[in-house]
Amino acid sequence: MNSITIRRPDDWHLHLRDGAVLASVIGDTSRHFARAIIMPNLVPPVVTTADAKAYRERIIAAIPKGDRFEPLMTLYLTEHTDPDDVEEGKKSGLITAVKLYPAGATTNSHGGVRDMEKAMPVLERMAKIGLTLCVHGEVTTPEVDIFDREAVFIEEKLEWLRRRLPELKITMEHVTTKEGVDYILAADSNLAGSITTHHLIINRNAILVGGIRPHYYCLPVAKREHHRQALRRAATSGDARFFLGTDSAPHVDPLKECACGCAGVYTAPNTMSCLAHVFEEENALDRLEAFTSLNGPAWYGLPVNEETMVLEKQEQPIVYPGKCETEAGAITVFDPMFPLHWRVR
Ligand code: DOR
Ligand code: ZN
């Protein structure tokens, strides 16, 4: 097969940042994707419907001319989030989901939730009005090894929340473990998972073998090979509970290449080429569309895109620019460590 046509894809987890970086990175997504769920972990975070409305306007203003792209906005859950404001955001059509960052789990998460009990009034309202909770599923307890943080979160926090509030729709974002995949497969309703491009391609060796490679460091951190294999099976299975959320997370190089580098992998420019490669390797090109374009809209109750995208396989490897230049500095693009032959026409 040298060419496939799929419905235009969506990205169900994306960081666009703000200001100069937003202006430079948005085209890498809007070129290929019709919609994306936009993460709210700005400095300061997007905590109210008014914040989300203002951020949405800045995003719309930055979309390159000629591209059709719809940002789907989220709110950053805090212990003080007002349930009425959340409900208003959902009713007005502005808010697609609310994001739970356990405090301290990742980039700019210090304003996140420490005590889940304090967030219950908002979560109960969300369950009532059918608004999805997107979860960064890692515990932050210092005693828990960083490679175990997702599995422990599932056991200690997610299971507790799902028992407490079974009506709440939860997206377990950027699943990185077999435990995460199995937990989603075992649930009969109200739980789905997004999977990133890079977690289908790298395991933890990419970060640590032969020298420390900061551009492969993200959170949740990539795990052992058998976890990557479980993610590949889930993504390519066609199971409607799994869909693409790239977690494309740009940081300028000086913030990655230093003594205490930021977490995040910038995959927006070459994600579709990488995914076509992965799905071809798994003999599952016929299921790429489900993962990138069908399962996500079904889960979020949105229509699928009418436009299509053609991916063509060419003999010569495609050369993507290794960097995205921004006014704030260069951002290194994800290197899958294999040549890419699938091009978006
Ligand atoms: O690697 C990551 N980068 N993981 C996150 O959860 C946040 C993100 C970011 O904002 O840079
Ligand atoms: Zn993220």
From TrEMBL:
Entries under Pfam families matching the protein? Amidohydro_1 (PF01979)
Q: Which Gene3D superfamilies match?
A: Metal-dependent hydrolases (3.20.20.140)
Which PROSITE patterns does the entry link to?
DIHYDROOROTASE_1, DIHYDROOROTASE_2
Binding-site residues, substrate = 15-17, 41, 136, 219, 251, 263
* EC annotation from Swiss-Prot or TrEMBL: 3.5.2.3
Q: Where does Zn(2+) 1 bind?
A: 13, 15, 99, 247
- What does the cofactor section's free text say about binding? Binds 2 Zn(2+) ions per subunit.
Spell out the CDD domains in the cross-references.
Answer: DHOase
Annotated binding of Zn(2+) 2, by residue: 99, 136, 174
Q: Which reaction does it catalyse?
A: (S)-dihydroorotate + H2O = N-carbamoyl-L-aspartate + H(+)
Its Gene Ontology molecular function terms? dihydroorotase activity
Modified-residue entries (N6-carboxylysine), positions: 99
The protein's UniProt keywords, in alphabetical order, are: Hydrolase, Metal-binding, Pyrimidine biosynthesis, Zinc
- Residue ranges crossing the lipid bilayer per the database entry: none
Q: Which PANTHER family match?
A: DIHYDROOROTASE (PTHR43137:SF1)
What functional role does this protein have?
Answer: Catalyzes the reversible cyclization of carbamoyl aspartate to dihydroorotate.
Entry similarity comment: Belongs to the metallo-dependent hydrolases superfamily. DHOase family. Class II DHOase subfamily.
Quaternary organization = Homodimer.
Q: Name it.
A: Dihydroorotase
Which source organism? Answer: Rhizobium oryzicola
